[in-house]
Design brief:
This protein is of the alpha+beta class. It has 15 helices and 12 strands. The strands form 4 sheets. Strands 1-2-3-7-6 form a 5-stranded antiparallel beta sheet, with helices on both faces. Strand 2 and strand 3 (66-72) form a beta hairpin. Helix 3 crosses helix 5 and helix 10 packs across helix 12. It is globular and about 60 Å long. It starts with 19 loop residues before the first helix and ends in a 9-residue tail after the last helix.
Length: 435
């Protein structure tokens, strides 16, 4: 499985950061973009809309259509030039998009053009889609989401795993993405290390969460648990991950779901991607109280969120197991070792044990993703857009309490229903500073 894909080029001799005028001239020389946009290039509208942490993102519209153009910067945009970052991440993102399109083309944006030297990728413009995180803040429900995201997870994870691939093909896939270690390092630091120690770029809702942040820095049980998760992240190349699959990397309408921004792609533990989705939905649920205008007005939406969380895992599990039953052509668990009725029964028992281990990983990673968004560098707007700082801190304290329990007692959460039950019980819990 060689995931290397052909990159387009328009004669760029070296990397340069493109601004509006430069981008217009550049795109005018790319036939696929000219066809997509239509009309004269002077008529195209170009606006830079990137609100993420790393890259430039332009929306380009012409007479016939539009394109989203993403260019990697040689540094972390959120911090600036003091934090350099390799441009090669655009190469890995492009490879991941090509891989995902082969397996779930309807769930990712179509790539129109890629320029390796400029670290630039042009994709179809997703309209009228919005970032899912923003929709959830507005209490919008997405009926297609559970089916779509569980399909994306099952397809992309199963077909890049040892259950579907030969050992040689799997090792080639790992090699193809092994160079994306700078992005992995960001994850290793910002998710698995910094929130549990004094780090210059950490922040939280002070002064309300000062004591909680200090307690997390002193909690050795928590430090052991997060270190075990970090080791699994670094040393368990189970499948090709999206690597940053949160509700800010998903664009939605009520009838369509698109997964974007896989620049953190690498081979790692499957539970990391699944846990990222579930952790972000749990944060949306526990942040919801902070977005109420009148008490209880979001109760039915919050019930839908909990149903959605349960649906993500149950849908993924069902689809993953179905693929294992019909598409298991890999070197893992060779069918020749499980012949006859007894062999089939033993293999089925092992499949269930495999999914139980995967669920435990998912619970732990969901907790890790939650903690980093409250005590680390990069926060999310689920909480940040709660204007009242004390109310925001109350919501965040609930999420931290849930996450700590999930991380330390992951094995006691044997079903997704146990997770949503714990979240529901904390919905009205009051931290000491609120009493």
């Amino acid at each position: 499985m060689n995931l290397q894909a052909q990159s387009g080029s328009s004669g760029a001799s070296q990397y340069r950061i493109l601004r509006e005028a430069d981008l217009r001239d550049y795109l005018a020389g790319v036939p696929a973009i000219v066809t997509q946009l239509g009309g004269a290039s002077a008529e195209w509208s170009i606006s830079e809309v990137g609100d993420g942490n790393l890259n430039l993102v332009f929306i380009v519209k012409g007479r016939s259509g539009g394109s989203a153009v993403k260019q990697a910067l040689p540094y972390v945009r959120l911090v600036g030039e003091s934090w350099p970052l390799p441009l090669s991440r655009a190469h890995y993102e492009h490879m991941a998009l090509v891989h995902q399109a082969r397996l779930a083309s309807e769930l990712v944006p179509a790539v129109l053009h890629h320029d390796a030297e400029l670290a630039l990728t042009a994709m179809e413009l997703l309209e009228p889609h919005i970032i899912m995180r923003k929709g959830l803040i507005g209490a919008t429900r997405y009926p297609r989401f559970v089916d779509d995201i569980s399909t994306f997870l099952a397809q992309t994870l199963f077909f890049s795993s040892d259950l579907a691939l030969s050992a040689a093909a799997k090792k080639q896939g790992i090699a193809d993405f092994a160079g994306n270690h700078a992005l992995c390092k960001i994850t290793e630091d910002l998710i698995f290390t910094d929130p549990y120690r004094i780090a210059e770029q950490n922040r939280w809702t002070a002064p309300y969460l000062d004591a909680t942040a200090a307690a997390f820095r002193e909690d050795l049980d928590l430090h052991v648990a997060i270190s075990r998760l970090k080791l699994k992240f670094m040393a368990s190349p189970e499948a090709l991950l999206h690597g940053d699959l949160h509700t800010g990397s998903i664009m939605v309408t009520e009838s369509e779901t698109k997964v974007i921004d896989p620049e953190f792609a690498f081979y790692g533990p499957m539970g990391f991607d699944i846990g990222a989705v579930i952790g972000n939905l749990l944060m949306a649920y526990l942040a919801s109280a902070g977005h109420e205008r009148t008490q209880g007005e979001r109760a039915s939406f919050e019930a839908w969120l909990l149903e959605t969380i349960e649906g993500v895992w149950t849908g993924f599990s069902r689809k993953f197991l179905a693929l294992w039953g019909s598409e298991a052509d890999g070197d893992g668990y060779p069918l020749s070792l499980f012949t006859g009725e007894a062999g089939a029964a033993r293999l089925e028992a092992e499949r269930q044990a495999y999914m139980a281990r995967l669920f435990r990983d998912t619970v732990g990673f969901a907790a890790a993703k939650t903690i980093r968004r409250i005590l680390g560098l990069a926060h999310n707007i689920d909480f940040e857009w709660i204007a009242d700082e004390k109310q925001r801190a109350i919501c965040e304290a609930r999420a931290l309490k849930l996450a700590r329990g999930m991380m330390l007692e992951a094995g006691s959460y044997t079903t997704i229903g146990a997770v949503t039950c714990a979240a529901r019980e904390l919905r009205h819990w009051q931290p000491a500073f609120a009493r």
